[in-house]
Design a protein that fits this description.
The chain is α/β, with parallel strands linked by helices and about 250 residues long. About 25% of the residues lie in helices and about 30% in strands. The strands form three sheets. A five-stranded mixed β-sheet has the order 3-2-1-4-8. Strands 11-10-9-12-13 form a five-stranded mixed β-sheet, with helices on both faces. A three-stranded antiparallel β-sheet has the order 5-7-6. Strand 10 and strand 11 form a beta hairpin. Helix 1 runs parallel beside helix 3.
């Protein structure tokens, strides 16, 4: 008699919540059940409350997409070593650049000497509510990560070069990041108003202008891109690394 998987994953996206059981060999795009996320954080948490009883006794990872998580490329500071010091510098850097940072939880990417450090931010109230609700339903909350940080880690060995930019397609938005010497130096999320190629071009041009650098020669694409969408502008070479989100289970929200 087979046992049901003891792990599950929950995706919180701008328009939907996805959930699926997971085992060690679960493919990144294996089917998940999606339902509407509602409008606003209260509606999101209400939908999560309805899902958690079905996950009782399981170990849960949560991945936050736009707008529940956002990112900053925090400038290098030579005298910072401890993560707490880097979090303080992240707050100061975000304040200077107009990125929301108050009452936030901050997760830091790997430290690379002399390079900016990627920070993922999320509303502390949302994270605390996830912890409390999971405990109330006897669900062990294993981790809370951003969808972008997870994808970047998952495909880290597939990136063709240290200066390859990354574009992550996620249900109507495009996360774009410029990289230099293996570190993210600029990152932003852009609405996909026309098509994927235009969103990538617009996002990369905006980031290059902000960072004061040139446009990338190579762009790694992650997510649901059709063959006709693999061409990007300004002469860059596009390389598709693989899928990002689970496909929709038959009968659930597309």
């Amino acid at each position: 008699m087979s046992r049901s998987p003891s792990n599950a994953c929950l995706w919180l996206l701008h328009d939907a919540i996805g959930v699926r059981p997971e085992t060690r060999g679960t493919a990144i795009d294996a089917p998940a059940t999606y339902q509407p996320a509602g409008s606003g954080q209260d509606a999101l948490l209400g939908a999560i409350d309805n899902l958690l009883p079905t996950l009782r006794g399981k170990s849960l990872c949560v991945r936050l997409g736009y707008p529940w998580a956002w990112h900053a490329a925090v400038p290098w500071q030579p005298r910072l070593f401890a993560d707490d010091a880097w979090r303080g510098w992240t707050h100061a850097s975000c304040e200077a650049t107009g990125i929301e940072h108050e009452a936030c939880r901050i997760a830091l990417g790997p430290l690379q000497y002399g390079q900016p450090r990627l920070a993922a931010l999320a509303d502390a109230g949302l994270v605390d509510a996830l912890v409390a609700r999971a405990a109330a339903h006897q669900v062990r909350l294993r981790s809370v990560t951003s969808t972008f940080a997870h994808a970047l880690h998952h495909y880290r060995n597939g990136l063709p070069g240290a200066d390859t930019a990354v574009a992550l397609r996620e249900r109507g938005v495009m996360h774009c990041a410029l990289r230099k010497d293996g570190a993210v130096i600029a990152i932003g999320t852009f609405a996909e108003t026309t098509n994927a190629g235009s969103a990538v071009d617009t996002g990369m041009a905006s980031l290059a202008l902000t960072a004061g650098t040139g446009l990338p020669d190579q762009i790694a694409l992650i997510g649901a891109f059709a063959a006709s969408e693999l061409a990007v502008g300004h002469g860059a070479t596009a390389i598709w690394l693989g899928p990002h989100l689970p496909v929709a289970q038959t009968g659930s929200l597309p």
